[in-house]
Design goal:
alpha/beta; Rossmann fold; eight-stranded mixed beta sheet; 9 helices; globular
Length: 237
């Protein structure tokens, strides 16, 4: 098992393949195992980096709530690229991982060769919808706290510190994205279809791929079609 030490927090990661770098980030409550069906195909022509967000999978679950923030998560992503010797990479993510990929682009534009946004959204411009999202994140946190245990408490802290949103910077940045962008969404993932189409309209030159017979995780539901779409995008990037 490979671990990256980040100020006392151990971040689990795996690096497979060779070629241009691809960093894959999972969603809330998930882990790098999300991409088990995809890595072999993607690693044929790319260096594929998968990892576990703080409080998830095999990464540490620090007790300090201050250890769970979007900037720290973005810094973890940059540190993983450094470790892999990748100055630039295609930054890809599912759900929360897609939002973190957009945050990474805001913080490190020069390191982003392309973006792949999988069943995710760009956040909210207005305070009302954002408050609704944050209320949902707080419900998740309370539910995990009720379960108890290190892993559940880590997810509770991640819900409050990483999943919750505070402004509309990411959404407002969409028209400024100047790298190749692929937006992937399952045709049955109703909550994220509108957001995916919105991003494809706002990001200059973005490509939208709606995966048939797939839900919130099209890479699991339709791994061969997912690999075909993503590999095609990577070969053109």
């Amino acid at each position: 098992m490979s671990e990256l030490a980040r100020d006392g927090v151990r971040i689990h990661y795996e690096i497979r393949g060779s070629g241009p770098a691809l960093l894959l980030t999972h969603g809330f409550t998930g882990s790098s195992a999300l991409y088990e069906k995809n890595v072999a195909a993607l690693a044929r022509a790319n260096t594929v980096i998968t990892w576990d967000i703080r409080g998830h999978g095999r990464s540490d679950c620090p007790a300090d709530p201050a250890a769970y923030t979007v900037p720290l998560s973005v810094a973890d992503m940059a540190a993983l690229l450094d470790l892999a010797g990748a100055e630039r990479a295609v930054i890809a993510g599912h759900s929360l991982g897609g939002f973190l990929s957009l945050e990474f682009h805001l913080a490190h534009r020069s390191r982003v060769a392309g973006l792949i946004l999988i069943d995710t959204g760009p956040g909210y411009r207005s305070d009302g919808p954002r408050a609704g999202w944050n209320e949902r994140a707080e419900r998740f946190a309370r539910d995990f706290e009720a379960k108890g245990g290190e892993r559940a408490l880590g997810l509770a802290r991640a819900a409050r510190g990483i999943l919750a949103q505070h402004d509309g910077r990411v959404l407002e940045s969409l028209p400024t994205i100047a790298v190749p962008t692929l937006i992937v969404v399952g045709e049955h993932d109703t909550p994220f279809l509108a957001g995916s189409r919105y991003m494809s309209d706002k990001i200059p030159g973005a490509k939208l791929a709606v995966i048939a017979d797939a839900g919130h995780s099209p890479n699991i539901d339709q791994p061969e079609e997912f690999a075909r779409v993503v590999s095609g995008f990577l070969s053109d990037t």
